[in-house]
Amino acid sequence: MEKEQQEINNTEEQEVKAEVNETEDKVEEQAEGANNASVADELAEMKDKYLRLYSDFENFRRRTAKERLDLIKTASEDLILALLPIIDDFERANKAMQTETDIESVKAGIDLIHAKMVKVLEGKGLKAQDTAPGADFDTELHEAITQIPVQDEKLKGKVVDTVEKGYTLNEKVIRFAKVVIGAQ
């Protein structure tokens, strides 16, 4: 979106410059055959026109910058709206936990809320990275927090344990998986 905006701005600026150059050429042509008073009037008119076009362009640039900031501020609105029902579910679960004596039903309710939240976030493009023990250590996806000695040669330089899951948002890593890797 930003590149498109820059292209629009550059195109409009080039159009304004081309129009100014064209009018200056016309003024120079007319200056050769006309008297100085009419040339001065024509030049003043063209300068006024140029200033108005430049002003319009600056106003356009300011307006689009403001719109871009507004868009950034409200970009997460749809995610927040999708999470509000989950917050309501947590509040109902919390209220039920105060009086419920059957711990299994409370656990089942929390599991349902968790599954609902994961589904909403996956719908918005969030994916958990699958970092199984024995997987190759990849610096593009993992963050090694420590190394532990391993007996098995196959586990050297491999993921031994995952301390914290990693996540991607629309194929971009937003949190690296924190892993323990095997060493000698």
TrEMBL record:
The keyword Plastid appears for this protein: no
Region feature (Disordered): 1-40
SUPFAM superfamilies referenced in this protein's UniProt entry, alphabetically: Coiled-coil domain of nucleotide exchange factor GrpE, Head domain of nucleotide exchange factor GrpE
Gene3D superfamilies hit by this protein: 3.90.20.20, Head domain of nucleotide exchange factor GrpE (2.30.22.10)
Record HAMAP family: GrpE (MF_01151)
Basic and acidic residues bias (residue ranges): 14-24
Task of the protein: Participates actively in the response to hyperosmotic and heat shock by preventing the aggregation of stress-denatured proteins, in association with DnaK and GrpE. It is the nucleotide exchange factor for DnaK and may function as a thermosensor. Unfolded proteins bind initially to DnaJ; upon interaction with the DnaJ-bound protein, DnaK hydrolyzes its bound ATP, resulting in the formation of a stable complex. GrpE releases ADP from DnaK; ATP binding to DnaK triggers the release of the substrate protein, thus completing the reaction cycle.
Protein name from the UniProt record: Protein GrpE
Family, per entry: Belongs to the GrpE family.
Compartments in which it is found: Cytoplasm
Organism: Shiella aurantiaca
Subunit organization: Homodimer.
Keywords: Chaperone, Cytoplasm, Stress response
InterPro entries listed in its UniProt record: GrpE, GrpE_CC, GrpE_head
